[in-house]
Amino acid sequence: MAEAVFHPPRRKRRVFESYESPFPVGAGGKDFRMCQAEILNNNVIVRNPEDIEQLYNKGYFGKGILSRSRPVYSISDPSLVTKWRGANVNMPIIASKKYQCRVQWAKSILQEQGFDDCSVARILENYTKPLELPLSGKDGAEQTGNNANRTDLQTESTDLPRESSAETGDVVVLSPGKRNEGYKKASLEGDPAVDPVAIRGSEEQAQGDVACQKHGFLMPCGCKAQESTEQRSCETIKPKECAPEYVLVQEEEEGSLCPEDDSAEAQENFVKKEKLVCRRNPFRIFEYLQLSLEEAFFLVYALGCLSIYYGEEPLTILKLWEVFSEVKPDFKTTYMAYHYFRSKGWVPKVGLKYGTDLLLYRKGPPFYHASYSVIAELVDDHFEGSLRRPLSWKSLSGLNRTTVNASKELMLCYLIKPCDMTEKEMLTPDCMRRIKVQELIVTRWVSSRERSEQEEF
């Protein structure tokens, strides 16, 4: 058997971030933070934006449910943000078509709640009507009326006029005396007549509860009315705290330089007038961090920086070991491999897209490509046992070829348990103390290359 040769990881060409820390635990415990997660549909998700930033930036745990990897989802259109960079507003900018899609999503939810078409149309019309623009300065404070009126929110061709009209639907910035009144009109989330999000059953409304967008889409939750009132009183939208409540919608108008002339030349003289209109977001989507079962248990058991809740009660380590083993029958095997490689300094990620259990990264996915694709197996002292995925020579050759074509190496990780270990010992994570690990790198044997190397000796 040929000896395995370690190949250095292949570094990515463009790296746009710095390496902070391997784990979300501060040196000396000064920056220690206890994060919270919850089990939802057999998945572990983190909702708090600060916890999301902490877990992903320091250790690259989990992935965003709406993003490719890093949770950086935004409804704002980058091309529109670049186009309207002269308008000094700290709000998402989306196209009119995308906004109409969100209105349709909100309409479907209201219809599912039993409202007739007339009520749905009235509610959405009141909820999505143009509003005064809540501006904020660099320090988060409200801008004065003189400074706010300098914002340009309408364009014709490439020019940005200084005037805006409320009759045509453009955004009008109120004077300081009338601005508070405008904010009250723009903060009607608690009024069932205009807010589709706040509509629930009469019994729940009598208890003082309101529907909340903070916990996902437009689904009702058990937040108290006092909390929602404080949330509605916020005049400045902070993107890191919640999904955007207000958006700027780019709408178009078509005018003609020669309205009485129907010739082809006149048709070419139509000028598109574009404007930004401030409206409420009728369907807010939240970015969560989804943790794999192995990542979640490692944060709880090995690092002690995460509490996982099911309902309102946190689960103990033994309970998590039991629950995760029921959700994923091979959880014990994959977690032992995950714990082993994490302890060695690698960043393991799910290897499903390459047909394996784990992918091993040095430092993290932003810095290096994955070096190894790992298959984990739990065996006894004689390397015997009920293998999770028995590999034939044909399947092993195909898996190895797939791995090599992706510039990785295939590794078989054998977790060896003593023959005298009972099933009762496997019911707790303390069983890992008696587990030994054997790594085996699979390499394709090329006869011509091996023959030439032997002739050199």
Question: Would you kindly provide a written description of the structure presented here, covering whatever features stand out?
Answer:
This protein has helices at residues 49-57, 78-83, 96-112, 117-127, 145-148, 176-185, 202-206, 225-232, 264-268, 293-303, 317-327, 331-343, 393-405, 447-456; strands spanning 35-40, 43-46, 63-64, 93-95, 154-156, 246-255, 271-280, 289-291, 306-310, 313-314, 346-350, 358-362, 372-379, 409-416, 436-442. By secondary structure, the chain is α+β, with helices and mostly antiparallel strands. The strands form three sheets. It has a six-stranded mixed beta sheet, covered by helices on one side. A five-stranded mixed beta sheet has the order 11-12-13-14-15. It has a four-stranded mixed beta sheet with strand order 4-6-7-5. The radius of gyration is 29 Å and the shape is globular. Mean pLDDT is 75; it is low at 135-152 and 155-241.
**Strand order within the widest beta sheet:** 3-8-2-1-9-10
* Total number of beta strands: 15
Count of helix runs? 14
Order of helices and strands: EEHEHEHHHEHHHEHEEHEEHHEEEHEEH
> Any idea what the shape is?
globular
Q: Which terms would index this structure?
A:
457 residues; alpha+beta; 5-stranded mixed beta sheet; 18% strand; globular
Structure summarized in a few sentences:
The protein is α+β, with helices and mostly antiparallel strands and 457 residues long. The protein has helices at 49-57, 78-83, 96-112, 117-127, 145-148, 176-185, 202-206, 225-232, 264-268, 293-303, 317-327, 331-343, 393-405, 447-456, and strands at 35-40, 43-46, 63-64, 93-95, 154-156, 246-255, 271-280, 289-291, 306-310, 313-314, 346-350, 358-362, 372-379, 409-416, 436-442. The protein has 14 helices and 15 strands.
